[in-house]
Write a structure and sequence with these properties.
The protein is of the alpha+beta class. The chain is built from 4 helices and 8 strands, in the order ααβββββββαβα.
Length: 196
């Protein structure tokens, strides 16, 4: 039989020796801290991905609108006039020469896009308008301007902007593209002769 004095002395010796394992409380504390850090890192990652999506949407919108506006202005400058449909979704550009057929530009939805139909081509040229929801063609009058002006207005998609949490309202403003018809920019450009 072991005496109580001997048992007390052995427990004192054991308490002075270093431990080789974690207690349950230590393990729970480490797991709690790790889960909090992982949650914070996950929220930061989600925020970065949303900002990247927002930036990608803005860049795609700017590139698509720039490309579509260049083609729209070039065709309008080369035409002698235009007709806009009653709903404002179709624009017919009359050619400068009477032997040519008119060019049609159409705004279509699902997905929202600008379609260009040239009479000499059986295929449509399509400009995807990412991040934009709807648009219309219209006519604008400017006092003292001899050339009629055609306007293309495009509105952003509010659902997509809300989904991407875009804070700045300036990023979601209407895009307005104006072009004067019958205006040949190559003839109006002034070229200076080099000084000798």
């Amino acid at each position: 039989m072991i005496s109580p004095k001997l048992l007390k002395s052995q427990t004192r010796l054991n308490s002075n020796q270093p431990r080789n394992a974690f207690t349950l409380i230590e393990m729970l504390a480490v797991m709690t801290m790790a889960s909090i850090l992982l949650g914070v890192m996950f929220l930061m990652l989600v925020g970065i991905i949303r900002r990247m999506n927002s930036a990608d949407l803005q860049l795609a919108r700017q590139l698509n609108v720039t490309q579509a506006s260049e083609v729209f202005r070039e065709l309008a400058h080369k035409s002698s006039g235009f007709e806009v449909s009653a709903d404002g979704l179709q624009l017919t550009l009359k050619p400068a020469q009477s032997v040519q057929k008119p060019i049609q530009l159409t705004l279509s939805s699902k997905p929202f896009r600008l379609e260009l139909m040239k009479p000499d081509s059986p295929n449509k040229r399509i400009f995807g308008l990412t991040g934009l929801d709807h648009g219309r063609f219209s006519k604008s009058e400017i006092a003292g301007q001899t050339h009629p002006i055609v306007v293309l207005e495009l509105w952003p998609d509010p659902a997509q902007s809300k989904r991407l949490n875009q804070p700045a309202p300036s990023e979601n403003r209407t895009v307005r593209i104006e072009a004067a018809t019958g205006l040949d920019l190559t003839e109006n450009a002034s070229v200076k002769e080099p000084v000798k």
